[in-house]
Amino acid sequence: MHELGLARSIAGIAQENAKGRPLKEVRVAIGPLACVERGALEFCWGLVTESTGIAGVGLRFLDADGDTFVVRELEFMEEA
């Protein structure tokens, strides 16, 4: 299941780019030819992020073309 490795990579990218700011959601663009099972990726995301600084951060999928697979956006929590 390569989705586990993908989830680890997405988590690393999110944590690196968040620079300590609290995240709300990570959006990943996935094309139909990317050979990624969204349900498996979402399951792995939960496993990879539990007990980390990004536990509970949502993972949302955006439709893309071809074999696209890219972390498209990070949404941060609003400052109080």
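the 2nd protein, sequnce then structure:
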Amino acid sequence: MPSYTFHCKTCGNFTLFFSTMKGNKSHANCPNCSLESNRVYYPPNLYSYSKELRTRIERGMEPRKMTIEELGPKRTKKSSNLQRPWQVGH
């Protein structure tokens, strides 16, 4: 269930949970004073991800161009000695 944080000018921040992600969630009424409040946008929760994934997200999703030397030597696929051909890939 997605949660959204809003800021009320009189009561401060509050969080609401919605059952769907449909619709415009930029404004909501404060549960205490019923004033219209604006949504607060926070950066994604990245601290639980690995360092490699965090740096990849921070750099952007554009793939990096690599040279043949960076890819390393071409590996040949080992031919598997299958004794049970009905179990291919297991």
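Residues 51-59 form the longest helix (9 residues). The chain has two helices and four strands.
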